[in-house]
Specification:
By secondary structure, the chain is of the alpha+beta class. It folds into three domains: 47 residues, Uridine Diphospho-n-acetylenolpyruvylglucosamine Reductase, domain 2; 112 residues, Uridine Diphospho-n-acetylenolpyruvylglucosamine Reductase, domain 3 (2-Layer Sandwich); 93 residues, CO dehydrogenase flavoprotein, C-terminal domain (Enolase-like, domain 1, 2-Layer Sandwich). The strands form four sheets. It has a five-stranded antiparallel sheet. A four-stranded antiparallel sheet has the order 11-12-13-14, with helices on both faces. A three-stranded parallel sheet has the order 1-3-2, with helices on one face.
Length: 261
């Protein structure tokens, strides 16, 4: 790990100024610090966002659940507000990594990193959330651009994420046991205007599955998706499972999520 400077600003404006001067944003650090330890990244200055009050907190704004960008996974999982408004989101947060990871990792950091097997992107996409930054608001459908790629621009900071309350929702994950990342994870959300199904872990990034959504819009039941064929084209194939195996898992995990919802 290379030597670097450490800054902990107290406002978003201070953080942006440090980033514009060449600093690297640090939220939970669950990816960045590990990358630095391997000497695959060498930022001259780390800009810790954890001390910015405006990026903290969990609250309701009308029918929307709003979570600050630096709120850690444990706080989401244990929040009575989240458990009441969107219990599936609390359940998802409680199943990320291990206790140490959940105590440090943040929702904003997870979304900005956009690991193709991360859990939060599936919740954001299925729930039709809105990502707020220091510059603008970004709809979930426009935010995720592929493996480790998002619509965020240089020096843009996620300040909060707003989730509309669904009628029903559930998240199920088939874990890769060593890392506890999703080999396949599926978040299903039923809204007044239709069902959204978001899949993580199976491909190069989170994606919505149109065949499953179509089946569930007709009949919101596990049986309705039992016979739906999920295409294997473009899905991951590695030592943990072939593309065909992952395609099969998407269907199985979706059935479990619908039954849970």
């Amino acid at each position: 790990m290379y030597a670097c400077e450490y800054e902990r600003p107290s406002t978003v404006d201070q953080a942006v100024a440090l980033l514009e001067a060449g600093g690297q944003a640090l939220s939970g650090g669950q990816t960045l610090i590990a990358t630095m330890k391997q000497r695959l990244a060498a930022p001259g200055t780390l800009v810790d966002l954890g001390g910015i009050t405006d990026l903290q907190g969990i609250r309701m704004e009308g029918d929307n659940l709003v979570i600050g960008g630096v709120v850690c996974h444990t706080d989401v999982a244990e929040s009575e507000i989240v458990q009441k408004a969107i219990p599936a989101l609390a359940c998802l947060a409680g199943g990320i990594g291990d206790r140490q990871v959940r105590a440090r990792g943040t929702i904003g950091g997870s979304l900005a990193n956009n690991d193709p097997a991360a859990c939060y992107p599936s919740a954001v996409l299925a729930l039709g959330a809105t990502i707020f930054t220091n510059r603008r608001r970004i709809a979930a459908d426009d935010f995720f651009l592929g493996m480790y790629a998002t619509a965020l621009e240089p020096n843009e900071i996620i300040t909060a994420v707003s989730f509309p309350k669904p009628e029903r929702a559930a998240y199920e994950k088939f874990k890769q046991q060593a890392s506890r990342f999703a080999l396949v994870g599926v978040f299903v959300a039923k809204h007044a205007d239709g069902v959204r199904v978001a899949v993580t872990g199976a491909g190069s990034g989170v994606f919505r599955c149109a065949p499953l959504e179509a089946a569930l819009n007709t009949d919101f039941s596990a049986q309705a998706v039992a016979g739906v064929a999920v295409p294997a084209d473009g899905l991951n194939s590695d030592i943990h499972g072939s593309a065909a195996y992952r395609a099969h898992l998407v269907g199985v995990v979706t059935q479990r999520a619908v039954a849970s919802a």
